[in-house]
């Protein structure tokens, strides 16, 4: 498809949006309508290598560029359309094309608002060669709860932005897996068993991560009573899983996107509804947490990929997640960046992202900052890096720039629980990037992630001992 008619659609949308805004006094909504999403076909995306950008990363982030969560030495990488490379070059950065991601091809599933209640059959709904839709993930949770009632408890902990505003959307859902005794999986902080918390797809376009969560749920339930290691873990530990942290964003991804870019942020377009060609609405939920909010690696521009939102925990998805975590983990850490959490702390959290083959831990809000539990947190990261073959460190150490307001920093800051970010997948070569062939989940990603998650879950009983 040539670019001219697409631009025509974008202009038409902008005009429609402006008219709507004038007529109703509200923000334009035209760009999120499911019909126009279908009309806007995704385009090929370029990954640009920006040479020696680590030393000037704040300026690069300030351009509003989609800086990827990866680095190579002092080089950083930016995702964008054909024009983006010129824009970065014009700002004085030496830039080359690293790779071209082909436009994704799949038939978009129906939008949630048109599709009625989730049924068991929806567990088979996939896109892009096998990746599960939000409906499929939710049907899967229901199916597991039905098939394994002695091992699972379902939790609805909130609503997505679209659902909370009457625009379709989804419930926010978790599952707690364990060999259930009375009192297990209750939303109370002082649980009898330690808790391991896994979450995926807070960044919607990182589609490998939701698939890892799906497999983790199946691994724990299907192998209980068969695999000694799984059985021991399920007898002793509560395994919490949020497979889709940002369902509105994932719906945009599976629909082909509300813009030509792969969608990273949530579905909230009320802070600036029209980003024009190449921009994306929404809030970056991994910059919105109430920890060092507004610091490095965030933006006040609603069209930036690292838009932090209008305030700390402004987004319903953030608030609900923080609420859930606060209910299931006691606070074991005092105030101040250097204060250590209690050595008696139980629990461990992993948030799955893509990509750079890295394992990241706090503090990520500032270069050079170390937590009061750095030695233990770093040692566990080193072990998991050994299992996966990934690199490890804080965000400034691994990806070359600080990122404040992230979930991993938050869970450590507010509760004392060690929080890790896994960045799954390589930058180049087979099974790299945001959209690896689905077969990569079997061949490459799950074989690395499964043993790392087993290791992490085993550490939840006493992570600092
Ligand atoms: Zn991410």
TrEMBL record:
Q: Where is this region: Disordered?
A: 256-280
InterPro entries per the record?
Peptidase_M14
A Gene Ontology molecular function term for this protein is: carboxypeptidase activity
Task: Using the record, list the residue span of the signal peptide; answer none if the entry has no such feature.
Answer: 1-21
Q: Which domain of life is it from?
A: Bacteria
The residues forming a coiled coil are: none
Q: What is this protein called?
A: M14 family zinc carboxypeptidase
